[in-house]
Amino acid sequence: MYTGRIVKSIAGRDKGYLLAVIGEDKGFVLIADGKERPVEHPKRKNVKHISFTEKRLCKDEFISNKSLRKALKKCDIKEDF
Hints:
Strand content: 35-45%
Shape: globular
Oligomer: single chain
Low-confidence stretches: none
Order of helices and strands: EEEEEH
Largest sheet: 5 strands, antiparallel
């Protein structure tokens, strides 16, 4: 349901960062950004601590860390969360 969505963290050490949802786990989402949080070791984060955007990534864009970083950099989100 959430996989591929771009989110902005609103709580925690990664507050303010853009991240991509790469999976789900019992009320939590698994997020990664390709640098601090690689795709191989995603962070498990509560859904209440992220803000969903309207942007989505296709499956090819979050297969590798490099493609994920490129996709997040290309995403120009200037909304106030």
